[in-house]
Amino acid sequence: PSPPTHEQEALRELAASGSVDGIYLAYMKKNDPRIEMMKSLSIPFIVHGRSWGVETDYPFLDVDNETAFNDATSLLLQLGHRNIALMNGPEGYDFTFRRHRGVEAALAAQGYALNPANVSHSVMNDEAGFSIMERLLSQADRPTAVICASTALALGAVRSLNLRALKPGKDISIIAHDDVLPLLKPVNFSVPLTTTRSSLREAGSRIAERLIEQIKTGKADKSEELWKAELVVRGSTGPAHL
Bridge-partner residues for 168, per DSSP? Predict the structure, then answer.
């Protein structure tokens, strides 16, 4: 990715060039400077996500990541899990920060804490999920449940379990966030995957719809949409073996 200053310069040049009618921002970071910059430009824009530390007086659509991962953690706590791991996305992004907060808050509400050794940040792909799960399983006090930031991470995590003949939902519980990707469906895992579900395609369509409306009407969009993710319980979660 380009350094933030380079990206801001590129956005300014795009807006000034007249070659684009609108801009949408994604991959938001904490205290993301692009938002204030876009507010200063005379071009329609919308944000996919939010930025912690920036006042939410800009048009956005976001998934309630904090509540989603709070709900996932609460389910695991109800099943008796206390030693929970979090395979998070890349550090510094707003969504990873909010997901971490959600897990911590659910644990704290029951008098528990998230072990720093059980928290990882990585790209969200199969290889990362595999290597992180390998490390977690090698710990003396290995977690009884893992929350993954994506189904791709979960795919690698399950591959690691399979090598040890460990079964999701029986030997270790797994929950993943599901963007509803057509080629990676939770129901097609060897054990159907419990997920927090929110469609990336539907979000993209809604963002495009709102941006096009701004361009057509010339009216600023001040709407703030926060979508709730659906917790879908399947076979990959089960009681903890304490």
Answer: 172
